[in-house]
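== Polypeptide entry ==
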Amino acid sequence: MAAELPPGLRAAIDQELSGASRKDLAQRTAATTEAYRAGRGSSAVIKGRDDALAYALARLPATYAADAAVFEEAQDRAPDFAPKTLLDAGCGPGGGSWAALEAWPSVEQVTWFDASDPFLDMAQRLAADAPGPLRAAQRQRGDLLAGSLPKADLVLASYALAEIPLAAQTALVQRLWEACDGLLALVEPGTPAGYDRILMARGTLTGAGARLIAPCPHANACPLYPPDWCHFNVRLPRSRDHKLAKGAEAPFEDEKFAYLLAARPTVVAETAAGRVLSRPISGKAGIELKLCGTTGLERRFVPKRDKAAHAQARRLGWGEAWP
């Protein structure tokens, strides 16, 4: 998987960076990273415009890329789904909404919901010259756990569960599902903790009657056990400013993420027959795949002598659906 920011969003970030101190942004980026690693949410460090800009520079490309990869899978599983309304819950600077509009031009109305004014302000500035639904997005500042959430065909919570106290995460998943009229997309960091949150959401949603369409090929108990966990990877290019902000030299970044797609019965979708859970291992004799299938985990070896199957396996990557 690979993803790059839309030109309009890239240009908007560059415009925000005009005249900004790269050293200051790097320091703010480091403070945000330290807060996340310590288990604190963005509210601990995103206090104003410059903090939101540092986040948009250093983290928005990766969250956008993860969301875009998840939405690509949603399109594969439910090709006829054409949402008209989007709720971006815990939207941050709005990168997930951009990814949704790239996937579904059918979206006519966007609602940004976040507790952070600096994030909402940044989302609005970045969308000043964006396609109509983004430019006209409705912004709602509030607590995801208080009051009612607006209904939408597509509900996205991207890197949002981690911002919520552990004891309240199940309640938030229930609220997100109640707000969803079509498809719910949950995206979290691809860490064991992020996977645990997705696993909790999985149990909550199946208990509420949701249909899981990805990445799981079944609704049975997850067959993975620690130290293993379900996560995937997307590669994104780094701009010069991105590298400076993160103190990195590599021209690309690998963002690991965990996700879940759950659908209402009204969404016509099919579940994958299986899922490639790690990078395929190619050898002289063939390709070895680690799969999650309807009967659980399996290691499948596709020999080179089986030319048709081998050609198909060569096209599969980590995270893709098994035909």
The domain at 7-263 is CATH 3.40.50.150 (Rossmann fold).
